[in-house]
Structure formats: C-alpha cells, structure tokens
Amino acid sequence: MKLKKLIILGATTLLSVGALSACGQSNSTSSKSDNEVLNIWGMGEEVKSLSKMTDDFTKETGIKVKIQSIPWSNAHDKLLTAIASKKGPDVLQMGTTWMPEFQKAGALTDMSKYINKYENLKPDNFFKGSVETTIFDGKSYGIPWAAETRVLFYRTDVLKNVGYDEAPKTWDELEDVAKKLSDRGKDKYGINIDSKEQSLAFMFARQNGSPLFEDGKPLFNTPKFVEAVSYLNNFIQKGYSPKEDLGMDVSQTFSGDAMVPMFISGPWMAKAVKDTVPDAKGKWAIATLPKKENNLSSMGGSNLTIFKYSKQKDNAAKFIEFMSRPENQIKWLELTDALPTVMKTWENEKLKNDSIYKVFYEQLQNSEPMPLIPEFEELAQSYLKHFEQIYLGGKDVQSEMDDYQKESEKLLDK
C-alpha cells in the first residue's frame, strides 16, 4: 500500500503545481525598475505563502520581491534553461536531493562570504544534517530553510491491545508487534513498508551499521546492506505489511480499528492524520525510529540558494538572512507546517510543549541526508526496481543486490 501524502516536504524536496504571484511592494520602492526586483523561485504550493512574510522584508529593506512557484513537472527543465541562458531567479529554493546536480552544473553561488557576514547564517545555528546538504568541496552553496525527517506513526490504542504500551524501540520489537497486529484477522496488517519509498532501504541499511559508500564505491551487496533489505522484505512476505497498494489513503487505513496501525513517514503526514482521521484523535502518536545499531533517519527538506548569475546577490543574501531568523522560521512553520532548520527556533514554547514536534526534534538530531551525489536519484530509482523483483518476483535478495551493485558501479563510472 502506498499511503497518500499531503506533500509539504515531499521525497526530500518541495513539490506541487504553483503559479506566479507578486508581493512585497511598498511606496518607497514603487519607482524601481523590474531589474531591481528580487526574484524568488520556489517549488511547492506553500511557497505562495511567502507573500505573507515578504511585506515585512520590503518594509525593512526597501527591496521589492516577486515570487514564482514552479510546477514540479517542469522545474528541472526550467532550471537547466536558466543555467544555459544565464537568466533566472536571484533566490532559488532548492530541494536537498537536487543540490549536488545543480551545484555541479554551476547554478549555485558560494555562500561563504555571506555566512561570514551574517550571524544568522552561521552553520552552528542549524541541524548538522541540514548543513551537510549545502556543503560541496568544503564550500557552502545554500542555507538550510525547511527540514524533513522520517518517524514512526502508530495507533496507541491498537498497539496497547496487543501488549505494547509504547512504540517499539528496536528492530526485534518492531517485527514482534507487526506480527501481533497482523494476527488480528483478515485484512489486518502491522505496518506499511512502502515499496515505492526510495530512501527506506538506505535508511535501514545505515541503522544496521552499513555505510552506503566507501572511497566512492557503493556497498549495496555487502552483508549488512543485504540484511537490511531482507528485514524489510520479511514484513511483506509474512503478511505483516501489504504486498501491493491497497488503493486507500490514511483516512481509511489509520481510522477505526486501523487496518494499518503503523507506518513510517514525515511531518506532512502529521497534518494529514489530524485533518482526515478525526476518530483517531487522542489515539495516535509518533516515535523516533526503532533501533538496530542506531536509529538514523533520513534528513531532507530544502535550502535557500543564490543563483550563480544573479545580479542582486547581496540583496538575495539579505532575504535569506531574513528568512533564517528564528522568529521568521516560526512564522513559516505557522503558515506551512514546515519544520524549522534553525535549532534556536525549537526553544519556542509552541514547539517545546507539543508532543509531535518534540519527537520530530529528537529525530532531526539523529538524521542524515541521503548521499550527496548527482547520481543518487537514479541509483534510488534503480533500487526500487530491484526491490520489486524481490518482494513481488520472489528473487533472492543477495543475487538481486549483486546485480544492483554492478549496475550502480557502472552508472558511477560513466
């Protein structure tokens, strides 16, 4: 089953179809030419909400702002066109998984001098995992803006009925409770192992103590990596997880007696559960991921970057500094539910006293980004094809991972 997601920070980038909107104008700047307007490109429906914040930026700086929300379907081509023409935005919201490709393509500005200039842009202000997504060859090419990580969602009442007063804390406990939950009867499962989630196996491999690369070489057929894939496949083969998409969303699978009472997902699903599963109010929670050697999760989200060919780099840096202030990170959270990357923001009472945010904060401190290489998206999609051969086709895990290793080495040698 693939649980539907209300995407806020999807697949580690911000996705959606958007439109052009203008904002942030003031009388003091109305006579400026269009060339002096700060152009911001973002991907995600929530980017339109920036107009509710940029008025304050304009009042403070006198800089007018124009926001363009780019449809995900053509965002990649639009960015490549901008690079080729050397004409594009000043500020560019960049999903963390796209950073390696577009940094390598020369689309992003080295932010080092602005980090030295502005206290709010110092790396120590942000989650370590978020900062890692901005660093290439020892230089910073972006500032973390919105964070995303994966946690365990579960129905507290349903787990209690099978003897678990709290969430499973280890791999063994996760498998045990999943079995007990699936034993409830026909069409009842323990957990959803989303076979279309590209980061899941890499995340579990890390939890099993497997590095993903060593000296630039992938390690996808090593014993610890194979063990992690086998562990995930086991849930499906034993009926603890649906083998195929049930064609239902979370309002159906997580409600009532919960056909699927556990799943792994990100902050967007907290909003989805609150909004679409009213009968589960007070009966669900989230927890940090169960542990094997560790309980590392994936770190995603988006960064704010400056387009290499911008003629307003200094103004762009002012805008990024404005958005990096703790008080503005709180405003952005209130507008979009995007998790703040600035650690000081999490001292706010609204976050400190919220049971959901507290868990996300704990997991964010133990999360790492997926490998920051331009080829990773292609490697991840290739993995999903091989995993399908395992969980649907019945192929041997080791032999399938051997084939995946060979394909990955060939791809990286190009």
* Number of helices, counting only DSSP H or I runs of 4 residues or more: 17
Radius of gyration based on Cα positions: 22 Å
Number of domains: 2
Mean of pLDDT: 90
Output the structural class: alpha+beta
Percent range of helical residues: 25-40%
The count of strands amounts to: 15
Q: Could you list the spans in which at least 5 consecutive residues all have pLDDT below 50?
A: 1-34
Termini Cα gap: 35 Å
Q: What is the general shape?
A: globular
* Strand residues, percent: 5-15%
The CATH homologous superfamily of the largest domain is called Periplasmic binding protein-like II
The level 1 CATH classification of the largest domain is: Alpha Beta
Largest sheet: 8 strands, mixed
CATH topology heading of the largest domain: D-Maltodextrin-Binding Protein, domain 2
**CATH architectural arrangement of the largest domain:** 3-Layer(aba) Sandwich
Signal peptide: 1-21
GO molecular function: maltose binding
Organism: Enterococcus cecorum
Protein name: Sugar ABC transporter substrate-binding protein
